[in-house]
Amino acid sequence: MSSALKVKALAKNIRMSPFKIRRVINLVRGMHGLDALDYLKFMPHKAARIIEKVLHSALSNAENNNALDVEKLYIVEAYVDGGKTLRRVQPRAQGRAYMIRKRSSHVTIAVGEKK
Questions:
Q1: By C-alpha distance, which of 75, 85, 72 is closest to 14?
Q2: pTM (2 decimals)?
């Protein structure tokens, strides 16, 4: 699959933990593009809406920018990387402080045709 054309779409600085997004993206990796959109539409997770949006963007990029047939596209790559972490402090008893980490994510989805 390395020689075939891959079309990517990115979503950066999503305000959700990468762990929560990965559990959804692992389910659709390798699926047919349109089947994955239908699958994500009925998932109850917030991460499914984010991945659905990125996948739709990748399919649109392939169709409009590279003139590929959407019916033949599969999810070739799908991964989530950690983004910036906002650090906040929660006061605790007896003068202590507890660190709160508000994590963000970068979502990448690449679609292409299978041979």
A1: 85
A2: 0.88
Rg (CA), the chain: 17
Task: Please state which CATH number belongs to domain 6-113.
Answer: 3.90.470.10
Tokens representing 97?
């402080």
The two structure tokens encoding residue 8: 């990517």
Using DSSP's 3-state secondary structure scheme, residue 106 falls into strand
What is the rounded distance in angstroms from the CA atom of residue 112 to the CA atom of residue 75?
7
* Model confidence pLDDT, tens digit, residues 31-49: 999 999 999 999 999 999 9
| Domain ranges within the chain, ordered by starting residue | 6-113
> Measured at the alpha carbon of residue 56, what is the angle toward residues 54 and 61, in degrees to the nearest 5?
95
